[in-house]
Amino acid sequence: MGFNLTNGGLIRRENFIDGEWTPAKDDARFAVSNPATGDIIENVADSGAGDARAAVDAAARAFPSWRNTLPKERAAILRKWHTLILEHSDLLGELISLEQGKPLAEGRGEVAYAASYVAWFADEATRIYGDIIPQQQRGKRMSAVKEPLGVVAAITPWNFPAAMIARKIAPALAAGCTVVAKPAEDTPLTALALALLAHEAGTPKGVLNVISASRDRAVPAVAEWLQDSRVRKITFTGSTPVGKYLARESAGTLKKLSLELGGNAPFIVFDDADLDAAVTGLLAAKFRNGGQTCVCPNRVYVQTGVYERFSKLLSQRVAELKVGPATDPSSQIGPMINFRAIDKIARHVDDAVAHGAKVLTGGKTLPELGPHYFSPTVLADASADMVLCCEETFGPVVPLFPFVDEAEAVRAANDTPFGLAAYFYSDDARRIDRVARLLEAGIVGINEGALASEAAPFGGVKESGYGREGSKYGLDDYLSIKYICQGGLD
């Protein structure tokens, strides 16, 4: 089976600026490759500072008109965009799998997930309420209203090329903001396809602008946005070092930031847990997208009383996972995104083994499948002196850490500068309440491995960032509150 996207008309090679498809100003291009094979899919515009500036010019021109569009009119455009995304779900799913590598079922699932955010914020566009403040002085009336921030710059990662762009663009447009966006260099084609569908849905020119850029040229392109006072907000999903860079470099114009950054998620299995359910939940949480998600469990703590039994159950299930390209319908784990990812995973496994870990299953690259494949791996007897305990592996590796009691597990789970997601399995009602409160994370899964929902606030604490995406709270990050005081009313 192969993918044939040409007839679908979704692949675009150029930037989308001011309602037009335009090449980079110096006609530069870079290659987008299929991680399953290394084959080039397309050569797309390689943008620089001039292209980034042109995108802001268009967004700034469009903002006054867009902010004055009625909320129900913005909602109607978002609903049409949602409809078009679903109508093209098969092609979009194939495109995601082609440029990102995830299995086709996951690619199509991501399309539905992305569309859910568009539908959610279409409804939220009509629910941006303010407040009448109770009168404090005679003759004065006070109120608070919410207004769109202005031009928003969205910078998205490669692991969910549709969901992350939709999760940022939809609330921005719903709030009345205009957008300039740069998808990751590994996966720009999905974002450009979504821009095409947004345009077909009736988004006015300049309201949404998307540029692509290679790894080297992305820095000056994004720097243009960081320095431009017309850009009032940066929303970014990616690594903590890059998030810190964006915060520093945007401080000169005091932009509002939403930063969804790195994680080091713990997954705790207590001895009173349903072990079969815990194994199933861990598989869902860990091996989605081959372990390449920011909320994947990176450290699995198992109480000593059930450690051996859990290890055996998990290893059996992991060994059965089918690894292969998205073109194989039976594939459950696809390729990693690039050589850098493979090198990091192999380094983590080698370091763990050197420090005493035991490989229960996997632990090796799979060159017979292609250059970017790594076998799903379970490591027993992991410890805090291993690199994988403090660095996010971002791959299909499960290290098992034994622990004795609850206090030890919670202490180890929180012993990280990160705090995005955390999971635990227990059937003790008192423990559930207690541990949920003690874990230092923005998202906690209790007897559940699949956490994402458009209706729930997504974001972290500590060095995993700030701001929330999704839910009613996600809209507030694109709005400012204006206090209005009217006097002389006696």
Which features does this protein show?
490 residues; alpha/beta; Aldehyde Dehydrogenase, Chain A, domain 1; Aldehyde Dehydrogenase, Chain A, domain 2; 2 domains; 7-stranded mixed β-sheet; 6-stranded mixed β-sheet
What does this structure look like?
Strand 15 (about 375-380), helix 12 and strand 16 (about 395-405) form a beta-alpha-beta unit. Helix 2 crosses helix 6 (about 190-200), helix 3 crosses helix 4 and helix 9 (about 275-285) crosses helix 10. This protein has helices spanning about 50-65, 70-85, 90-100, 105-125, 165-175, 190-200, 215-225, 240-250, 275-285, 305-320, 340-355, 385-390, 405-415, 430-440, 470-475; strands at about 15, 20, 30-35, 40-45, 130-135, 140-150, 150-155, 180, 210, 230-235, 255-260, 265-270, 295-305, 360, 375-380, 395-405, 420, 420-425, 445, 460, 465, 480-485. By secondary structure, the protein is an alpha/beta fold.
The gist of it:
Belongs to the aldehyde dehydrogenase family. The chain has 490 residues and is α/β, with parallel strands linked by helices. It is built from 15 helices and 22 strands.
State the helix count. 15
Instruction: State the secondary-structure class.
Output: alpha/beta
Give the low-pLDDT segments: none
**CATH hierarchy class name of the largest domain:** Alpha Beta
What is the CATH T-level topology of the largest domain?
Aldehyde Dehydrogenase, Chain A, domain 1
Using only C-alpha atoms, the radius of gyration works out to 23 Å
Strand content: 15-25%
> What kind of sheet is the major sheet?
7 strands, mixed
Classify the helix fraction into a percent range.
25-40%
Kindly report the spatial arrangement of strands forming the biggest sheet: 14-15-16-13-12-18-19
Overall tally of domains: 2
Mass-distribution shape = globular
Mean pLDDT: 96
Distance between the termini: 77 Å
CATH superfamily of the largest domain: Aldehyde Dehydrogenase, Chain A, domain 1
Under the CATH scheme, the architecture of the largest domain is 3-Layer(aba) Sandwich
The number of distinct β-strands equals 22
Active site: 260
Protein name: Succinate-semialdehyde dehydrogenase (NAD(P)(+))
Organism: Caballeronia pedi
Keywords: Oxidoreductase
